[in-house]
């Protein structure tokens, strides 16, 4: 999930339970297929290794207690990353192998840096569109139409499914939730159903696009699945959304909410920024598929597009304001004249500053922590337990369910780092299950946690849990559709 967090959104790790299970399974790292998973020294049965695991478990416990202790989640994992790699460095220096540990650290840092810069550009564009009131305008349009509850249920779910592959599942879920809570204010039963539908739809939509979720982005950047190949997951993802939606829609009263009027005017340049974002995505795809260069090159080039356009908006602002003042004065539109007085120049660096830096630093800390644990040899043990003793299909299905309890990012990091010998169909399967498995619980995805914060009291953990069996049907059906439609891709050549 390309992510943009608001004040209410908390990363789902901070709400996790079943801590021992989390401690066991969140032993992951991220790398390209050429990066060595395990160092030359096996530290898994040494005191140094046990101490490193204990440090990570303690750090992650503090992350999960974020809401209780009110300490930002990046702090403990940043310190833990330093301690773990410090331990590795000390052991390898003692053995005269410091070059190996230095190389491993640099490679892990390089892969994180590529992903962080990619996410930073995406966050900047989303923030720019939010500042230009693109999302407010979409919400206003839906409010003015006066749809009934059933239509609103399908419209918000459908838009969540369509928009999340581009705008990411978290941003889309928050936008649709804002519509539901405003239109159906006070109707907790409908808000709960609609929010469940939105979370399921946003996660399903994000599963068939490299831009829909952080996990799909990781798979794409690793070069395992090509850009166009993600769309083979479209029908399985659609099934994952439609089956629960069809069942839940039968329990919605066919009534119409009170009409809500809200007028929102797009700020100057809003549509062109949308166009630049699509051009940026296209540039990233071309860099990866045609030039065989990292997609982050295309994203950073796209940031340059936005900077140039921001320069144009600032330079042309006085002339634009003067034209509008003349036009509104002739019309006698005092309301719009007053709005012109509050116009401030667009500044792209303000959008960069509004990125969720705590999340990006948390991401660094966790990747480096588990990169170190993987280098010590723990991921080799985990790979042996999962993919040597189990069939890859069942392992991937179970990992999708686990992602609802733990987090899909560590699950996907673990699989990418372990690099099990799987067919292309199995790689598509873990991409699907890690993407949609989080819908099984309200705390199972960043979208669900954020929506719980926004619709506090109406959309709850227990309210979502009552519909988990229905969502599980969609999860099973989506896997079945993938196994059927893409059966040829499961052949290992």
TrEMBL record:
<feature type="transmembrane region" description="Helical">
    <location>
        <begin position="147"/>
        <end position="166"/>
    </location>
</feature>
<dbReference type="InterPro" id="IPR045016">
    <property type="entry name" value="NhaD-like"/>
</dbReference>
<dbReference type="Pfam" id="PF03600">
    <property type="entry name" value="CitMHS"/>
</dbReference>
<feature type="transmembrane region" description="Helical">
    <location>
        <begin position="46"/>
        <end position="65"/>
    </location>
</feature>
<feature type="transmembrane region" description="Helical">
    <location>
        <begin position="230"/>
        <end position="252"/>
    </location>
</feature>
<keyword id="KW-0813">Transport</keyword>
<feature type="transmembrane region" description="Helical">
    <location>
        <begin position="77"/>
        <end position="93"/>
    </location>
</feature>
<keyword id="KW-0739">Sodium transport</keyword>
<keyword id="KW-0406">Ion transport</keyword>
<keyword id="KW-0915">Sodium</keyword>
<feature type="domain" description="Citrate transporter-like">
    <location>
        <begin position="52"/>
        <end position="435"/>
    </location>
</feature>
<feature type="transmembrane region" description="Helical">
    <location>
        <begin position="273"/>
        <end position="291"/>
    </location>
</feature>
<dbReference type="GO" id="GO:0006814">
    <property type="term" value="P:sodium ion transport"/>
</dbReference>
<feature type="transmembrane region" description="Helical">
    <location>
        <begin position="465"/>
        <end position="485"/>
    </location>
</feature>
<feature type="transmembrane region" description="Helical">
    <location>
        <begin position="297"/>
        <end position="314"/>
    </location>
</feature>
<feature type="transmembrane region" description="Helical">
    <location>
        <begin position="361"/>
        <end position="381"/>
    </location>
</feature>
<keyword id="KW-0050">Antiport</keyword>
<protein>
    <submittedName>
        <fullName>Sodium:proton antiporter</fullName>
    </submittedName>
</protein>
<keyword id="KW-0812">Transmembrane</keyword>
<keyword id="KW-1133">Transmembrane helix</keyword>
<dbReference type="GO" id="GO:0015297">
    <property type="term" value="F:antiporter activity"/>
</dbReference>
<dbReference type="InterPro" id="IPR004680">
    <property type="entry name" value="Cit_transptr-like_dom"/>
</dbReference>
<feature type="transmembrane region" description="Helical">
    <location>
        <begin position="428"/>
        <end position="453"/>
    </location>
</feature>
<keyword id="KW-0472">Membrane</keyword>
<comment type="similarity">
    <text>Belongs to the NhaD Na(+)/H(+) (TC 2.A.62) antiporter family.</text>
</comment>
<dbReference type="GO" id="GO:0016020">
    <property type="term" value="C:membrane"/>
</dbReference>
<feature type="transmembrane region" description="Helical">
    <location>
        <begin position="105"/>
        <end position="126"/>
    </location>
</feature>
<feature type="transmembrane region" description="Helical">
    <location>
        <begin position="393"/>
        <end position="416"/>
    </location>
</feature>
């Amino acid at each position: 999930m390309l992510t943009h967090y608001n004040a209410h959104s908390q990363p789902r790790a901070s709400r996790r339970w079943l801590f021992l299970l989390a401690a066991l399974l969140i032993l992951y790292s991220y790398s390209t297929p050429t990066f060595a998973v395990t160092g030359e020294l096996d530290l898994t049965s040494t005191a140094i290794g046990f101490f490193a695991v204990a440090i990570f478990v303690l750090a992650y416990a503090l992350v999960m207690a974020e809401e209780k202790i009110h300490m930002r989640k990046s702090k403990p994992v940043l310190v833990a990353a330093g301690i773990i790699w410090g331990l590795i460095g000390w052991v390898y220096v003692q053995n005269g192998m410091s070059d190996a540990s230095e190389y491993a650290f640099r490679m892990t840092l390089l892969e994180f840096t590529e992903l962080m810069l990619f996410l930073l550009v995406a966050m900047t564009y989303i923030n720019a569109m939010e500042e230009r009131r693109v999302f407010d305008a979409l919400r206003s349009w839906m409010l003015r139409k006066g749809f009934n509850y059933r239509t609103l249920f399908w419209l918000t779910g459908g838009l969540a499914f369509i928009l999340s592959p581009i705008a990411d599942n978290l941003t889309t879920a928050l936008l649709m939730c804002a519509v539901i809570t405003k239109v159906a204010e006070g109707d907790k039963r409908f808000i709960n159903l609609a929010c469940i539908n939105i979370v399921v739809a946003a996660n399903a939509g994000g599963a068939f696009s490299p831009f829909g979720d952080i996990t799909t982005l990781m798979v794409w950047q690793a070069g395992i699945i090509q850009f166009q190949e993600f769309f083979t997951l479209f029908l399985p993802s659609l099934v994952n959304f439609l089956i629960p939606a069809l069942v839940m829609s039968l329990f919605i009263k066919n009534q119409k909410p009170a009409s809500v009027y809200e007028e929102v005017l797009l700020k100057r340049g809003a549509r062109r920024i949308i166009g630049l974002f699509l051009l940026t995505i296209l540039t990233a795809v071309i860099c990866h598929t045609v030039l065989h260069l990292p997609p982050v090159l295309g994203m950073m080039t796209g940031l340059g597009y936005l900077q140039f356009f921001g320069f144009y908006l600032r330079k042309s602002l006085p002339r634009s304001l003067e034209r509008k003042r003349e036009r509104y004065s002739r019309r006698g539109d005092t309301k719009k004249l007053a709005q012109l007085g509050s116009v401030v120049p667009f500044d792209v660096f303000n959008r960069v500053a509004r990125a969720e830096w705590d999340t990006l630093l948390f991401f660094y800390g966790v990747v480096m922590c588990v990169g170190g644990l993987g280098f010590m040899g723990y991921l080799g043990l985990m790979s042996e337990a999962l993919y040597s003793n189990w069939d890859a299909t069942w392992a991937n299905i179970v990992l999708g369910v686990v992602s609802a309890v733990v987090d899909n990012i560590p699950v996907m990091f673990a699989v990418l780092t372990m690099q099990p010998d799987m067919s292309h169909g199995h790689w598509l399967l873990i991409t699907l299950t890690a993407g949609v498995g989080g819908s099984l619980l309200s705390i199972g995805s960043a979208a669900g946690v954020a929506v719980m914060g926004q619709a506090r009291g109406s959309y709850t953990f227990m309210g979502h849990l009552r519909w988990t069996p229905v969502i599980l049907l969609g999860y099973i059906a989506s896997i079945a559709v993938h196994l059927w439609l893409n059966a040829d891709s499961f052949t290992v050549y």
